[in-house]
Design goal:
Layout: H1 4-18, E1 19-25, E2 32-36, E3 38-41, E4 44-50, E5 64-71, E6 79-90, E7 99-113
Antiparallel strand pairs: 1-2, 1-5, 3-4, 4-7, 5-6, 6-7
């Protein structure tokens, strides 16, 4: 019998240890957005986005984007990974009050390196 909880919880920790930040380059936007990766949920990785960020208007839950991940080790290459937007929620009363928490889930490692 496989322990599904252990398998799911190991992946986000591995991502947090491996990557420092993620870059969004959304079609139709003149801007590139880069965010530090936060490990604040057992559900996966999250980034913090300001309420007035133009990125929020361009993201929808369920979107799958090819995002650029920067590693914690500068000698390792940047990775492009298919990533699903799992949830978008405003933190009304918590540690990140007034910011939006955008939950990300790596869909597939495309092994595309730059």
């Amino acid at each position: 019998m496989t322990n599904n909880f252990a398998e799911r919880s190991a992946k986000p920790r591995n991502i947090i240890d491996q990557f420092y930040s993620v870059e969004f380059s959304v079609t139709g936007s003149a801007f590139v957005y880069q965010f530090k990766i936060w490990d604040i949920s057992p559900k996966g990785i999250r980034v913090l986005v300001k309420e007035d960020s133009g990125l929020l208007n361009r993201l929808k839950v369920g979107d799958i984007l090819n995002l650029k991940y920067y590693t914690t080790d500068s000698s390792r290459p940047i990775e492009y990974l298919e990533t699903e937007i799992r949830d978008i929620a405003k933190d009304e009363n918590g540690r990140f009050r007034g910011l939006y928490l955008v939950g990300l889930s790596i869909v597939e490692n495309q092994n595309t390196r730059q």
